[in-house]
Amino acid sequence: MDKCFFDPLKALYSSVTEKLLVENPGKSITLQNVLGIFQKSYSATERVQHAEKAFRVTGIEPINPDFMREDYYSPSLVTLAPLDNDFTFAVAPEEKEFSSSTSQIDVSIQSILPLPRHEQRGAKWKRKSQKSEFMTSSPFKNFLEKTERKR
To answer: Which portions of the sequence form the region Disordered (predicted)?
Structure first.
């Protein structure tokens, strides 16, 4: 599909984009333009012949068992080459200093890096329940004004 469909689609999309930019100098391609550009290029490449050609080129339909040669499946000659194990490496001796002290440091990991703890959330604030009533009624209006003054 890449050979027979997506390559022409990419080429047409690029040409339609270039044409749009040449016809409208100074403008950039916006997200709103992308769908229109893609629609033009897709409708030009969307053909049954392209799909048939893709199947034919890749050897899927009609079935072509000779499309993939046997050497494509065989392991690489590089992996079959014998290894030459006669290499010698000169390595400089490492100088290690050992402490003559027999004391051990006993430090726990938690003291160095304490484990994260989940903090308990406080009690959830509950809204004061109200009865359904008309907002324009005098008692409710007075109650609202009173609570607003408290804030």
So the answer is: 120-151
**Domain ranges across the chain:** 2-78
pLDDT value of position 8: 81
DSSP letter string, the chain: -IIIIIHHHHHHHHHHHHHHHHHSTT----HHHHHHHHHHHHHHH--HHHHHHHHHHTTTTTT-TTSS-GGGTSPPHHHHSPP--------PPPP-------------HHHHSPPP-PPPP-PPPPPPP-----TTSHHHHHHHHHHHHH-
Q: Which amino acid is at 115?
A: L
Q: What are the backbone angles phi and psi of residue 31, rounded to the nearest 5°?
A: -60, -30
CB atoms under 10 Å from CB of 47, counted, come to: 13
Do the Cβ atoms of 50 and 4 come closer than 8 Å?
yes
At residue 85, the pLDDT reads: 64
78-128, pLDDT tens digit by residue? Answer: 565 666 666 666 666 676 665 666 667 777 777 787 777 767 666 666 777
